[in-house]
Write a structure and sequence with these properties.
mainly alpha; about 80% helix
Length: about 270
């Protein structure tokens, strides 16, 4: 157990640094690594991907709170936009977890692999949407939130890779888009984690110390170290070559995507 906790402390540290460096949630790193580590621990192939996604969402509940508080102190969160987004996010995340629960582990890995490849291409080439001409209505925000929440719950992420481009497209400044996206990560993670506890309750093949699909040793280790190491990532972001780092991480995501797609399609 001590060795297991140490492994997840290291993973949490890496996820925190990645989040600080690139301004994205650590879920893109946490989910693939958890999938591999759960496999090495002997967790059933049918449930380990669901457990990785659920555990990632649970960690985001804790890590997003400090992020939201920091952004709110700077007055950067657009709360009027957040409210309708959050309504859609809660509904979408709820449906996303149930959608993932109906998928076989292999199919879920394929979906994660495709998403990782898309993000890798975006990061490698710096693709960003151009600002649109219309300010979104509350209904439009709620609709977008439902899509973001659903996708995030399936992939085990806080939604920043989807929310930030959407808000930027809707004429929100980058600083406010990042801050509002951080706030949106909390309802995504809360609803995703709670629903995964329900859907995974009593599921065969899960490891000891699991709460539904959430594997508690991994949750504890990641939460303890990721918040501390995010500050290191932020510091490095201002001193290391950003373009090179983004391309390196894009390469990592490409390898993850290739591993998942090749292993499950051929």
């Amino acid at each position: 157990m001590l060795l297991t906790l140490l492994l997840y402390l290291v993973l949490g540290a890496a996820a925190g640094i990645v989040a600080g460096l690139f301004g994205i949630g650590g879920g893109l790193l946490i989910v693939p690594v958890l999938i591999f580590s759960f496999g090495l621990q002997g967790m059933s192939a049918e449930v380990l991907t669901h457990a990785a996604v659920a555990t990632s969402l649970a960690t985001i509940v804790v890590t997003s709170i400090s992020s939201v508080r920091a952004h709110n102190k700077r007055g950067a969160v657009r709360w009027k936009m957040f409210r309708p987004l959050a309504v859609g996010i809660v509904v979408g995340a709820f449906l996303g977890v149930f959608t993932a629960d109906t998928m076989k582990g292999a199919h879920l890995q394929i979906a994660i692999g495709i998403f990782a490849l898309v993000v890798a291409i975006q990061m490698a080439f710096g693709l960003k949407p151009k600002a649109g001409q219309e300010t979104p209505s509350d209904k439009g925000l709620a609709g977008a939130g439902s899509v973001i929440g659903c996708a995030s719950a399936i992939f085990g992420i806080g939604g920043g890779t989807l929310t930030v481009p959407y808000l930027t497209w809707k004429q929100v400044s980058m600083q406010e888009a990042v801050a509002t996206s951080a706030a949106c990560g909390l309802p995504i993670a809360c609803m995703g984690a709670l629903t995964n506890i329900y859907t995974g309750w009593g599921e065969a093949g899960l490891a000891e110390w699991s709460l539904g699909y959430i594997y508690l040793p991994a949750f504890i280790g990641i939460v303890v170290s990721s918040s501390l190491c995010a500050k290191i990532g932020v510091k490095w972001a201002h001193s290391l070559p950003g373009d090179l780092l983004r391309k390196i991480f894009a390469g990592f995501l490409t390898l993850v995507a290739a591993r998942f797609l090749l292993a499950n399609l051929f």
